[in-house]
Structure formats: C-alpha cells, structure tokens
Design goal:
single chain, Helix Hairpins, 5-stranded mixed sheet, 7 strands
C-alpha cells in the first residue's frame, strides 16, 4: 500500500480517535452521544492537522528535492519523461532516485578516473616510444655534422643506423594512425571472400626468413586443408595474421614451432595461432591487448615491435564482429584464437 499524505493522516486520525474514545469510555458520566461526538471531532481535527503537517512541512519539500534531482538527471542522463511519473510515496521515490543518481555519478567518476589514468599512461608511452628513435637518429646525424662525415665508413654506418630509427618511427606513426582510425570507426571494412589457407601460406613465405633465423618451423593444420573461405577484409585480416604469426616466431624458443589451426564450424571458421614458447604469465594476460603494453619491454623493443600490434588486432577483429581470446601457460606456449564467418 502506498503511504500518501492522505493515507498517513487517515491512519493517524483513526488511531487518535480510537484512543480518545477508549479513554472517555472509562469515565462514568460519558454516554454514546458524547463518545460519538468526541470520536468525530478528534478524527476530523487530527486528520486535517496531520495532513497539513505532513503535506506542507515534509512532502512539499521532498517533492522540491525530487524535482531538482529530475532536472539534474534530465540534463546529465537524458531520462525520458515516462520515468518522471509522480508517485504517491515521494519519500521512497526520493530515496530510490538519490540512490540511482549517486550510483550513476559514482560510476561516472570511476570511469573518468580510469580515463585520466589511461591518458597519462598513454601520453607517457607515446612520448617514450617517439623519443627513442628520434633521439637516436638525431645523435647519428649530429655526429656526422660535427665532423664524422669525412670518414666514409663511419658516415655510411651512421646513416644506416639513422635510417633504421626513422623507419621505426615511420612504422610507429602509421600504427598510431591506424589504431586511431579503428577506434574511432573511421576505417571501413571491405568485405570479400578470403581463402584463409592461401592467405596463411603467403604469410609463411613472407616470414620464412625470420622463422629460419630462429629455427622455428611453420605449419598449417589440418595438413590436407586446401580451402577455408570466410567473409572478411583481406588486407586487415592479413594484418591480423601477420601480427600473430610474427609474434609467435619472435617470442618463441629457438627451434620452436608455430601452428596455425583452421577448424570448420557450423557458421564460421575458428582460427588459432599456437606457439610452444615461454608463454605469458597470468598477470600480463589481461593487459596484452592494451596500447604499448609489453610483457618483456627490452626484448620487445629489440625485436622492432611498436607495442601496438595486438591492440590493432583486437580492433580489426571487433570491426569484423568477432573477438580474440588468448590462453597461455608459462613454459608451454601461447594460443591466440578468433572466429570468422563463412
């Protein structure tokens, strides 16, 4: 039952009237007429006094507070007018409104704190990643300008090193631009039929030299699979596969192996890239898809990575309506898996 001001006043008036009649009934001189008159008088007077006190002194102020909360919510959260229907119990309604409002604000504050922390970390990471190749190239060029240019061997060596650092800077900037476009939704996926088997073989050929240098073997499973047609953006899925396979090679053990498995399901193909390298500890697994996050910072930088590859992979697959998962066990290897529609 809703406890409106009328109902509260009615209940209190009945109680007061009952108490009054009960008290008077113990007096010998009172009769039925007196009891009836006293009951009616006490009921009417207490009803109006109680109703006035509750409505004017309590409920009216509560309704003002509630209207203020509604205005704040309309401005902050764009709540529809249907949610603002008046209720007969403004005390409970106000309590509910305040609870929801405070909870929403608390979540908003927590999100803002997370975003601020992420922004600080991102700016620090970007500045560090940009600074390293720029300072290196700058050092080599200034050394040449200060006199080392006369020595032909030194000149060529320093120019090669400066060029490598500038190439690294170019890759980093391109990855940042690509990631920014993917996150903002500016990049359109050009969907077409893609044979994953042919695509994987092409990538194996491109990465053959890298794999040979580390004595890593590359394999597709099942062995006799010739075709796996999916609907995808060929260029972007190529980018995904290159990143996953090259990572599996770079961070594998010497003499290890990389296996790309393509399994047919009812409406899709499940793709997994597995290595038998050192694996990734649980503390890092939840963060490896973050921008610039590296499990082994020094090793990643030495191998030429920008720290953006897996973040780009995640966003490309999200744009295809799917997601990537990772399972890893220290000392036994890592498996990255995702699905693509047939």
């Amino acid at each position: 039952m809703s406890l409106s001001p009328r109902i509260i006043a009615l209940l209190l008036s009945l109680c007061i009237s009952f108490i009054t009649i009960t008290f008077l009934s113990f007096i010998d001189e009172t009769n039925g007429t007196i009891l009836f008159t006293a009951g009616i008088a006490s009921f009417v007077s207490s009803f109006f006094l109680t109703f006035y006190a509750i409505e004017m002194l309590v409920f009216s102020e509560i309704k003002k507070m509630r209207r203020t909360i509604h205005k704040l919510k309309l401005r902050d959260f764009s709540i529809s007018k249907k949610a603002l229907l008046q209720t007969s119990n403004p005390i409970k309604a106000m309590n509910d409104e305040i609870f929801v409002y405070v909870s929403s604000k608390q979540k908003e504050i927590e999100e803002l704190k997370k975003m601020e922390q992420f922004r600080r970390e991102f700016l620090a990471d970007v500045s560090h990643e940009l600074k390293t190749p720029v300072f290196s190239a700058q050092g080599f060029v200034h050394t040449l300008l200060e006199g080392a240019m006369e020595d032909e061997a030194v000149r060529e060596k320093f120019l090669i090193k400066a060029a490598k650092n500038l190439d690294r800077l170019d890759v980093l900037v391109n990855d940042l631009v690509s990631l920014s476009q993917l996150e903002s939704g500016e990049t359109t996926m050009h969907l077409e039929k893609v044979n994953l088997v042919d695509l994987t073989r092409e990538i194996f050929e491109r990465l053959e030299k890298v794999a040979q240098d580390r004595s890593v073997s590359l394999k597709i499973k099942p062995d006799k699979l010739e075709s796996a047609l999916v609907i995808a953006d060929k260029q972007r899925i190529d980018q995904v596969m290159v990143n996953l396979i090259s990572n599996a090679i770079k961070y594998n053990n010497e003499g290890g192996k990389v296996v790309v498995s393509i399994e047919e399901e009812k409406k899709s193909f499940s793709i997994s890239v597995k290595d038998n390298g050192p694996g990734i500890s649980q503390e890092h697994l939840a963060r490896i898809f973050e921008r610039f996050y590296r499990v082994d910072k020094s090793r990643s930088r030495d191998s030429g990575g920008t720290g953006l590859g897996l973040a780009i992979v995640k966003h490309i697959l999200n744009a295809h309506g799917t997601s990537i998962t990772v399972m890893s066990q220290v000392g036994k290897g890592t498996v990255f898996s995702f699905k693509l529609a047939k």
